[in-house]
Amino acid sequence: MQYNLKELSNGIRIIHMEVPHTRMVHSGFILNIGSRDESKEQEGLVHFWEHMAFKGTKKRKAFHIINRLESLGGELNAYTTKEKVCFYASILKEHFNKAAELLCDITFNSTFPEKQIEKERQVILEEMAMYRDSPEDAIQDEFDELVFEGHALGRNILGTEETVGKFSQQDFFDFISSRMDTTNIVFSVVGNISFKKVLNQVEGFLSSIPEKRSLYIRSGYSQYVPKTKVIEKDISQAHCAIGKPAYSIYDPKRFKLYLLNNILGGPSMNSRLNLSLREKHGYVYAVESAYQTYSDTGFLGIFFGTEENTVKRASKLVLKEMEKLRTQKLGTMQLHMAKEQAIGQMAMAEENYAALMLVFGKNLLDKGKIDSLDSIFGMIRETTSEELQEIANEVFAPDQLSFLTYLPK
């Protein structure tokens, strides 16, 4: 995985990988600012900022922003996570300079027009209502609140009706001014364009962005207490969440937990949870186990929907599969097949160049480097069944798990 890297005088870093066999270039700004960096009164502000970036800059109105790349067959998008906000685009290689200039404009020159704030406020309230009406989405957000109770990691990225209803133009300017740090910004490019051409086209306007430093320090997470909560809702099916905090992005055991989680409830149909809950017993349509890393902690959560009268049986099966991984070592062939499956999934993911561009930016911000796939594959291949069992006993200990259940009224 060959990539190029340059740091500008203002601290912004440009990372690039050339892919000759495509017509496209994917690029984006990844900022180390997320929903966990909001105060309680600011809950939802970063996500609102993400929306407002498309609503007007010092030289463009909303229509001109939306039409700039769409009229060329390109795509412009953005997203917010607990620790990052990203503005990115995909475009034919001959139009890369237009995409890069537009991304720079919406990232650094947004004006947050007051009329547009009022319109977008309603859009976000509708988005929140849509998530509430979807229990499989709502339970994931509410489970975050349960596991990370009292910490910003537990707050909803969308915010609350109360906070979203109060944000003003000045709130955006004040927040960005206090959190923006040019040393925590990466411009990532993956596609059919040389590094020399990227620098020729973007270095001028990226270098003109004023250097900015922030005194803000992210509040760490430490205190976890397992909890169990049952909520009655107007739904036809029960939904369950089981999990706890896990290893951070800096923990050397994270790739081993990735492998273990893949065995338990990864995306493949042969995961242990899918084979047990769906194929053998028919209790669920879908079950997933998700492992998410953050800068100071992580999160492992298992989610599924089932009939109300099978909630207890399905939950016991989940705990039974976790217990097996704690008490029974994987056989040589089982371990080999699990490794090959995880490696194949990672290799396949590398073929998605838009996603790879975003991963490059995120990893550079988090770790200051990009882990090569070969090095990750090496760590996975070196994993022993004893190590997986040890991690299973750390992460799957039943007395450390939290439970959230939605039951039909």
Strand content: 15-25%
Shape summary: globular
In round numbers, the mean pLDDT is 96
Please count the beta strands (DSSP E, at least 2 residues each). Answer: 11
Oligomer: single chain
Give the structural class.
alpha+beta
What summary fits the major beta sheet? Answer: 6 strands, mixed
**Gap from first CA to last CA:** 53 Å
* Series of H and E elements: EEEHHEEHHHHHEHEEHHEEHHHHHE
- Poorly predicted segments: none
Strand order of the largest sheet: 1-2-6-3-5-4
Pfam families: Peptidase_M16 (PF00675), Peptidase_M16_C (PF05193)
Organism: Belliella aquatica
Family: Belongs to the peptidase M16 family.
Protein name: Peptidase M16
Question: Quick summary of this structure?
Answer:
This is Peptidase M16. This protein is of the alpha+beta class.
Task: Explain this structure.
The protein has 409 residues and is of the alpha+beta class. 44% of the residues lie in helices and 19% in strands. The protein contains 15 helices and eleven strands. The strands form two sheets. The chain has a six-stranded mixed sheet with strand order 1-2-6-3-5-4, with helices on both faces. It has a five-stranded mixed sheet with strand order 7-11-8-10-9, sandwiched between helices. The chain starts with a strand and ends with a strand.
Question: What key attributes describe this structure?
Answer:
single chain; 409 residues; alpha+beta; 6-stranded mixed β-sheet; 5-stranded mixed β-sheet; globular
